Amino acid sequence: MSNATTMLGRNFKHTLRNPVAVFNAVLFPIVLLLMFVYVIGGAFDIAGNYIDYATPGMVVLTICYGLSATALAVNSDMTKGIINRFKVMDISRSAVLSAHVAASMLRTVIAISAIIGVALVLGFRPAASFSEWLGAIGLIVLVSFATTWITVALGLAAKTPESAGMVSVPLVMLPFLSSAIVPAETMGAGVRQFAEYQPFTPIIETLRGLLTGEPVASKAVVAVAWCAGIALVGYVWSLSTFKKRA
Q1: What is the pLDDT of residues 48-62, one digit of tens each?
Q2: Rounded distance between C-alpha atoms, residue 194 and residue 198, angstroms
């Protein structure tokens, strides 16, 4: 834990010194929220206030937009020689990866707090009870944990920092092809089926149901199963790749 805390401080300092990472993780999701609500949100046929519909999807988009910095940071450690220095020091191997995961999740918490704060100012009015808020927070943490581990694995697998910057693009794009912005049933054939069966749609629908006070039992089971599966694959893949490359 001591090693992980030290490495977490190191990684978080690197984030603060990287304005691009801060913009992508915190500011760009706010720009997207403003664009969808004030520029094109009125064109969507959504019952009720569009900000109430869009905010849960924007929360998941916020999680994904911060992942590129994680992939790049992990790959930089592997390709620039710092891992070789750590190997000759009395540092826990697991602390290196767990600190990257913790730093990414901490960055995500800050970004989500900002996006929800802006959404409340814009008129977002959740109807969630205290227990539903706890469920929503738990799901957000689980999604962040799962996507971060799979991003760490992708960053470790990338051969260069340039390619590491691209490996998170599918994770960033997938929420756009889900029910984050508009309901899946309004999409064209092919895209609609893809949106319905990809992992982010049940996750977003569960989060949306929790925040609006609607029943989400069946969707929640699917969402948690997706998160658990992604986290397990990412964790095992990360450890395997790290042992081979380190």
Answers
A1: 788 888 899 999 999
A2: 6
